[in-house]
Amino acid sequence: MLFSFDAEVEHTDRVLEDLVQKGEVIANEFYDCTFVRCRFNETTFRMCRFVNCTFKNCDLSLMHVPGSSFSETAFEDSKVVGVDWTEASWRFLSSISFLRCMINYSIFTDMDLHGTRIERCVAEEVDFRGTNLTGANLSHTDFFESFFKHTVLDAADFSHARNYKIDVNLNKLKGAKFMLPEAIALLRSLDIVLVE
Are residues 71 and 119 in the same domain? Predict the structure, then answer.
């Protein structure tokens, strides 16, 4: 379904379903809105504001978010692949969460995402270098080939997470939760010899 966002600058308390806006440029504000089964592939959200919004079963692959802000915004069962979140307005990127999403090839470099939720996701080759993930819920997520360097993971929850490669010498891990047998991967970065 095609929908014109130009008609109104601000959208409040709306449910927007089955929208197709591939490659479009959107510059609006959204408060308490729910997006269901929308396709925003390669769409540019320029200087948008999302407050207390939810994206359910949406495809946001390769979207661009220059200057946009996301506060109390959740992505559920959605494809959010190849997004450079560093384009967003950092001061207003707070309390975003991903549940059962695919976020492969996304970039969160040097961002403050403390307390965020990336749960039951596929997060392959995601760049978390320099990111603050203090207290983040990262459980049940596949981090195959994702990048962790100078990442703050204090009190982060990696329960049931898998395929992570985290150098204990190059990241902060105080109070982080890991489970066996996956936690054995943390030993790879130490100069030790494991024997049976």
Answer: no
Q: What tokens appear for 35 in the block?
A: 């997006």
The answer to whether residues 121 and 74 belong to one domain is: no
Q: What is the pLDDT of residue 196?
A: 67
Q: In the β-sheet with 34-36, what is the strand arrangement from edge to edge? A: 15-17, 34-36, 54-56, 74-76, 97-99, 117-119
Whether cis (ω within 30° of 0) applies to the bond prior to 66 is: no
Distance between CA 106 and CA 128 in Å, rounded? 9
d(CA 98, CA 75): 5
- Cβ atoms within 10 Å, residue 53: 22
Looking at the structure, do residues 182 and 143 belong to the same domain, yes or no?
yes
pLDDT digits (tens, 9 = 90+) for 130-186: 999 999 999 999 999 999 999 999 999 999 999 999 999 999 999 999 998 888 778
Number of domains forming the structure of the chain: 2
Question: Global pTM?
Answer: 0.91
